[in-house]
Amino acid sequence: MSKTSPKRPPSTRKRMILMLIAAIVVFGGVFGIKALIGAQTNKFFDNMPQPAAAVSTATARQLAWSDDAEAVGTFVAVNGTDVTTESGGVVRSIEFDAGQPVRAGAVLVRLNTSNEEATLRALEASAKLARVQATRWQQLGKDKLVSLDDVQSRVTAAATAQAQVDAQRALIAQKTIRAPFSGVLGIRKVNLGQFVSPGDPIVSLQQLDPIHLDFSLPEQRIGELVEGTVVRARVDAMPGVVFDGKVTAIEPLVDAATRNFKAQATVQNPDGKLRPGSFAHVGFALGGERQVVVVPQTAVSFNPYGNALFVVEKTARKPGETDMQGKPLTGDKFIVKQRFVKTGATRGDLIAISEGLKAGEQVAASGLLKLRNDAEVTINNKVQPSADAAPQAANR
C-alpha cells in the first residue's frame, strides 16, 4: 500500500494575488458601468434640444446724424459779486429789499458819517481861510511887498487844505454803499446798528441777463469749436426746455491735469429763469450731417476685449427636429450669431455702429445674458427697451 502525501495549502502569496485580481475585476466592473452610464448621460444631454430663449429685437436703422458733442457746464453771472464796503462804520440805514432788482448806482446801505461830516466842516473852513490868504498874498506878491517864496507857500497851503477836504468827502462817499452794476440782489447780510469792517459782505448782487455758461471739452476738439457756435443748454429744474446761446470765448490754455480746455457761451435770460451756479447739459453741432447705422444701446455688450451684439437670423428647420417633450417643431427657426462691432457716438438710448453691422439687420435688444452663439430664440416684442435719441425722464 502506497503512501499519499498530504495536500499542501496554497501559499499566502498566491492568496494575495488571487484577492488582488478579484478586487480589480470587481472595481473595474463598477467603474466601467459608471463610465458607460456617464457617457450615455452626456450623449443624452448633448443631443437634447435646448429651450429657445425669449428676446426682444430691434432693426438697425440708418439715420442722418450731425457731428454733435455734449458736455456739462455751469451757469455763471456776467457780473456777480458780494457788495462790500471800503470803510468801516455802523449801519445807519438799509435802503433795499432782499431779492429785488436794482440799477447801477442805486444806494443800498448808508453808514454813520456824523464824525466824518463834522471833520469835513472843519476842513472846509480851514480850506476857505487858506484860499483867502493865498489870494491876499498873491496880490501882495504882485505889488512886490512879499517874496515869491512866501506867495508859493500860501498857495501850496491852500491846495493842501482843499485836498484834505476832497479826501474827507471821498471817505464820506465810501460810507454810502451803491450797486456797482444792474442786477438782482440776494439776501442781506447786515442789520441796522451793526458795525461792519472794510471788506465785510453786505449783500450778493448778480447780473442775470445775459448769463454765461462755462463748460469743458477734451483737447482733441480744440480745433473744432469756434466762436459763434450755437449751443443748446438744458437744466434739470426745467425738463423739456432748451436755452440757446452762442460760444463767445474759448480758453487758449489746456489744463495739464485733465487735458481739457474751457469754453464760454452767452445765453439770453430775460426772464431770469437761469441762475448762476446751476448745472447744465450742453449740446452743440460741430459739423455737417452724415449717415450712421444705429441700434439701441441695450443691444451691445461692452467688453474689454471688444464690443459685440447678437444678430438674429431666420433659417429652415432640419427634418425631424423636436422640442424637449419630443414633439415635432414646425415654422421658422430664429438663431442668433454673435458679431463683434465697432461702436461710435451715442445719442440718448441709441448708439452708432461704425463697423460690423448693416442697416436693416435685426439684433437682439434684450435678454443678452442668456444667449450664446447659434442659440435658438423666440421673438417677443410686446415689451421693448427705450430707443429714443432724446429721452425724457418721467415726472413721477
How is the largest sheet built, in terms of strand order? 2-11-14-13-12-15
Structural class given helices, strands, pairing?
Answer: alpha+beta
Report the radius of gyration as a whole number of Å.
46 Å
Poorly predicted sequence stretches spanning 5 or more consecutive residues: none
CATH class of the domain at 53-65 and 291-379: Mainly Beta
One letter per element, helices H and strands E, the order comes to HEEEEEEHHEEEEEEEEEEEEEE
For the terminal residues, how far apart are their CA atoms? Answer: 120 Å
DSSP summary: helix tally: 3
CATH architecture of the domain at 53-65 and 291-379: Beta Barrel
Question: How much helical structure, as a percent, in the residues?
Answer: 10-25%
Q: Tell me about the largest β-sheet.
A: 6 strands, antiparallel, barrel
Overall shape: it is elongated
Bin the strand percentage: 35-45%
How would you describe the overall organization of this protein?
This protein has 396 residues and is an alpha+beta fold. Among the domains are: 53-65 and 291-379, Beta Barrel (conserved putative lor/sdh protein from methanococcus maripaludis s2 fold); 113-174, Helix Hairpins (Orthogonal Bundle); 214-286, Efflux pump adaptor protein, beta barrel domain (Elongation Factor Tu (Ef-tu), domain 3). The chain is 23% helix and 37% strand. The protein contains three helices and 20 strands. It has helices at residues 12-47, 114-142, 148-174; strands spanning 53-59, 61-77, 80-84, 89-94, 101-102, 107-111, 176-178, 183-185, 195-196, 201-206, 211-218, 230-234, 243-254, 260-267, 279-296, 307-315, 333-347, 350-355, 362-366, 376-379. The strands form three sheets. The protein has a six-stranded antiparallel beta barrel with strand order 2-11-14-13-12-15. Strand 13 (243-254) and strand 14 (260-267) form a beta hairpin. Helix 2 packs antiparallel against helix 3. The longest helix is centred in the first third of the chain and has 36 residues, at 12-47. The radius of gyration is 46 Å and the shape is elongated.
